[in-house]
Design goal:
Blueprint: E1 12-22, E2 28-39, E3 44-48, H1 55-63, E4 70-75, E5 78-79, E6 87-90, H2 102-112, H3 117-130, H4 146-158, E7 164-168, H5 176-193, E8 196-200, H6 204-210, E9 213-217, E10 224-229, H7 238-241, H8 245-270, H9 288-293, E11 309-310
Parallel strand pairs: 3-8, 3-9, 6-7, 7-8
Antiparallel strand pairs: 1-2, 1-4, 1-11, 4-5, 9-10
Bound molecules: adenosine-5'-triphosphate.
Length: 311
């Protein structure tokens, strides 16, 4: 059973959110348009959508790093006005200080919050044990494998016991086998404290394996196209769940929704005719990363590159 509290005040609520940015030429680029999304306390929500559709922008709004041009962003019913300590992040790139040991990196968050060094170090040791890195406390980040560095990142984030966890393609740089192991570890750790999660990924298989629901965004300006409930039982093992017939059925349904957006985004960036016939066979889950990662060649020519938000 998925033990989310769907009748409670949402942990995260985006209502009619629009985000505009000013372009270098003085125009306005709309990244998100009238986006509605909720995540219940303890719910694991994955967000998929074509490149440039506004997934990372959505995370920035939830985190308080950006303020929306229009609409409302609420955490536990309260408007987001700034960075919130209840929110934890994990990004594609590691956030470890390269000159600090693993132990000090994990203890850094509690230290920053005013926890005594002794307690912060004890907590860091405990989290390193949970992520399977006991014995590696004195290593520097570059002395670890990619998978180990992700475990450090998990410990760094989860030691702060966030009520809301935002993850932006955190495992995309890992090889497939390591990624699956770390995904399983994430699920196990998530079960311990059950933060509400928004997990952005280009990998539809990853989204389904991890999440309680998958939100599909449209091609930019992004808005919610579809939301799919993932009613697969927990606890899950990601290496095994993808062979479940229900997983395959979900994959096909979600890919059908995502496919048109992917095709449109690709056509835009390639300057091609989006109506032109393309191969649209449903990729097998085994080829999910390639199929939905759709490394479409960068941004459309009109894409802004400055950092100016428009309100
Ligand atoms: N600070 C900014 N200033 C101007 N434009 C921006 C800014 N941040 C994002 N954009 C634009 O807004 C759109 C959405 O960007 P965003 O990074 O949220 O997309 P995404 O879905 O996360 O992309 P990807 O899947 O490629 O990581 C893009 O067209 C991007 O160029």
């Amino acid at each position: 059973m998925n033990a989310t509290t769907t009748d409670a005040v949402p942990a995260i609520e985006l209502r009619g959110v629009t985000q505009r940015f000013r372009t270098p030429s003085g125009g306005v680029h709309t990244a998100l348009h009238d986006l509605d999304m909720t995540v219940a306390p303890g719910e694991f929500c994955a967000v998929v959508g074509p490149t440039g559709c506004g997934k990372s922008t959505t995370l920035s709004l939830i985190s308080g790093l950006k303020a929306a041009s229009a609409g409302r962003t609420l955490l536990h019913g309260e408007p987001v006005t700034s960075l919130d300590r209840r929110v934890g992040f994990m990004f594609q790139t590691d956030a470890a200080f390269p000159w600090r040991t693993v132990l000090d990196n994990v203890a850094a968050g509690p230290r920053f919050r005013g926890v005594s060094r002794r307690d912060a170090v004890a907590g860091a040791r405990d989290w390193l044990r949970r992520v399977g890195l006991s014995g590696f406390e004195d290593r520097l980040p570059h002395q670890l494998s990619g998978g180990m560095r992700k475990r450090v990142a998990l410990a760094q984030t989860l030691i702060n016991e966030p009520e809301i966890l935002l993850m932006d393609e955190p495992f995309s740089a890992l090889d497939v086998q390591t990624r699956q192991i770390v995904q399983d570890e994430l699920l196990g750790l998530w079960e311990l404290t059950r933060p509400a999660v928004v997990f952005v990924t280009h990998d539809l298989e990853e989204a389904i394996a991890l999440a309680d629901k998958v939100v599909v965004l449209t091609v930019g300006p992004g808005t919610v196209k579809d939301t799919f409930t993932i009613d697969l039982p927990r606890p899950r093992r990601v290496q095994e769940i993808r062979f479940d017939a229900r997983f395959v059925a979900l994959y096909e349904r979600i890919w059908t929704s995502l496919r048109d957006e992917v095709r449109l985004a690709y056509a835009r960036s390639a300057g091609a005719d989006p109506g032109a016939p393309t191969k649209d066979a449903t990729p097998s889950p085994a080829t999910a990363t390639t199929a939905t990662g759709f490394s479409a060649p960068s941004e459309p020519a009109t894409t802004p590159s400055d950092d100016a938000e428009v309100h």
